[in-house]
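During the second year of the project, the team shifted from modelling isolated chains to modelling whole assemblies. The rationale, set out in the original proposal, was that interfaces cannot be judged from single-chain predictions alone. As a representative example for this report, we include one of the complexes processed in the last quarter. Its constituent sequences, exactly as entered into the pipeline, are reproduced here:
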Amino acid sequence: MGKAADLLPGTLDMLILKAVSLRPLHGYGVLQRIRQISGETFDIPQGSLYPALYRLEHQALIAAEWGQSENNRRAKYYTLTTAGRRRLREETAGWNRLASGIASALNTRPEEV
Amino acid sequence: MFERLRSFFRARAHRHDFEDGMTDELSFHIEQYTQELILSGLSPAEAGRRARIEFGSRNSIEGECRESHGLHLFDELGRQLRYAYRLLRKAPGFTVTALLTLAVCLGANLTIFAVINSILLRPLPFPESDRLVTIFNTYPKAGVDRDGASVTNYYERRGQIPAFASIAIYSYGTAIIGESGSTEREQVIDYAGPDNHSRLTRLPYCLPPTRHGVGILIYRFFEAQSPRPPMPPAYASSDTSR
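Output from the structure prediction step:
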């Protein structure tokens, strides 16, 4: 991964919700999926993934169910709940607003002022 | 909020499942990562070592997971209680002294409160209430020790017994209180008296005599129970009072 960026505070939950919204995933799968869909931009500390998953499950934003993994092992799979879907939508909208605001601020040229 | 409570109680009720599930889940993660590292060319032993190092301290991660379900509070409470119990058992002399002190203090508090409550906070609503007595009719031959008096008895006796400065009569009952058409039924004390008004007229809720020459008053039972002076009383004509 080399020079992976640190996650901004609060964005891990959003990325987990997004990863899980694509397809039910176990914890390790969430990590891989975030790495994949972010173009390997982030290095998510493995230790902080599970507390975040448990927190989201506790808030009923994701639901957990035991199932079989690809290599036939018992694994806990997470899916997005209705509340989670709503939260993801809100967070996505909020993030896009923030990102476009910052982008337009940073891309301003002197003649545009 | 509701979901969080449900999640907390589920984790609490099935604590073993929660712990086993967490252990399995974290082990599964480390195994998966080890496999990935082996595929990338590391030796199994080295891969396992790297996976565990990168994963971080399992203890603290498990702690954080429990914390996110609110379980750590109970764990901590249980730990503290066990610690306290062990400390107390180690020092029986201290324990006994502390318990006795607590018991004596509680008892003293209770007694003092009972006295203050009856003397200061909720005295009977009469002046010199320590000199107040209840008189009963007795019928020894019928084997009845204590019986109530009739209204006639009251009229016969008031002013006739030198030992009593004044006499009043009361009975418990219910009454409909409020505007006409009201359906609010309250428990009340019907109270009539006294024969001379010199003593009880000091009370804010003693009424002037009605056409029968007796002040009749209904006040809400609950107000009579409260330490505050009763609300302005509701008037009732004497024929509804008993």
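The helical segments of chain A are 11-22, 27-37, 46-58, 82-106. Chain A touches chain B at residues 26-28, 45-47, 50-51, 54-55, 57-60, 66, 69, 71, 73-76, 83 (CB under 8 Å).
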